[in-house]
C-alpha cells in the first residue's frame, strides 16, 4: 500500500502529465500558426484552441500548488534555481494570451502580423523552455546540503537539457498538428497530416538520441527499473502509441492519431517519473543531497489535510475539463465573434 508521500508523488505526476497532454497541443497549434498560409488559417488555428487554452493551463497551476503544499523544499529549489528561466516562460505564456486577444482589435495587416508573431514565438519558446526544465530535472542539478540550487542560469543550458527541449518541441508540435487535423475543415487540413508525419519522424530520431544520452548522462534513472512491471506496462504503451500514430494518421483516423500522440506524451512522462522515484530533484554533484519524497515533504498532518482538499479539487478540474471539451467538440467554424 502506498504511503502519503508516494500518493502525493503520483498525484503531482498525474497533474503534470495532464498539463503536458492538454497544453501541449495548444502550444503545438501556436507553433503551427507560424506556418499558416493566410488569414483564414491563422484565425482558424487560434479559434481551434480559444475555448480551452486557459483551462489547460489550470493543470500547471494545480500541479504547482500541489508541489508547494506537499514538497515545499522542491518548490523552493526549482523556482529559485530556475528563476530566470521561469520568468522567460512566464513572459512567453503571457505573450501568447495577449496576442490572441489583441490581434483582432485593429483592422490592419501590420498590427495582426505583430501579434501573430507574438503568439507563435511565445508558443515555441514556452514549449522549448518546458522541455529544457524537464531535461535538467532528469539530468540532476547542483544542490548544497540544504537543498538550495548552487548553479547558474547558463548551467541550465547544458547539451542534454537542450536535447530534451528539442524533443519536447517536436512532440508538442506533432501533438498540435494532429489536433488541427482533427478540428479544422478538410480544405484547411491539407498540410497537417504531412507536417505531422515529418514531426513524428523527427521525434522518433530525437527520442533515440535522447535515450542514448540519458544512459550516458543519468545512468541512475535505469537502476532497478527494468524489474518493475509498471515500467514494462508503460514501455509497451509507449511503443504501441508511437507505432500506431503514423498508421492512424495515414488512414485519416485523426481522433485515434490524437489519442496516440497523447498516450506517447503520457507514457514518456510516466516512465521518467517512475525512473526518478523516490527522487524529485536529483543532485548532480552529490546524490546524497537529492530531494526526495521523504526528505522534502511536508508533515504527515499537512499531507493528510491536503489530500482531502485534493480529492475535492482535482475531480472539479477534471469535470470542468471534460465539460468544456464536450461543449466545444466538433469542427472549428469562423463567425462574427471569432478571434
How does the SSE layout of this entry go?
Layout (H helix, E strand, L loop, with lengths): L3 H30 L5 H11 L3 H18 L1 H10 L1 H20 L6 H31 L19 H25 L2 H4 L2 H26 L11 H22 L3 H23 L2 E3 L9 E2 L7 H28 L12
Antiparallel strand pairs: 1-2
Helix pairs in contact: 1-2, 1-3, 1-6, 1-7, 1-11, 3-4, 3-12, 5-6, 6-7, 7-9, 7-11, 9-10, 10-11
Can you give a write-up of this model?
This protein is mainly alpha-helical. It has one domain. Helix content is 73%, strand content 1%. Strands 1-2 form a two-stranded antiparallel ribbon. The longest helix has 31 residues, at 109-139. The chain is globular and about 55 Å long. The protein starts with a helix and ends in a 12-residue tail after the last helix. The model has no long low-confidence stretch (mean pLDDT 89).
* Structure class: mainly alpha
How many domains in all?
Answer: 1
Radius of gyration: 20 Å
Largest sheet: 2 strands, antiparallel
The amount of beta strand, in percent, is under 5%
In percent, how helical is the residue content?
over 70%
The overall pLDDT average reads: 89
The N- and C-terminal alpha carbons lie at a distance of 50 Å
Shape: globular
Written as H for each helix and E for each strand, in order along the chain, the element string is: HHHHHHHHHHHEEH
Query: Count of helices?
Result: 12
> How many individual β-strands?
2
Q: Record the strand order, biggest sheet.
A: 1-2
**Unreliable residue stretches:** none
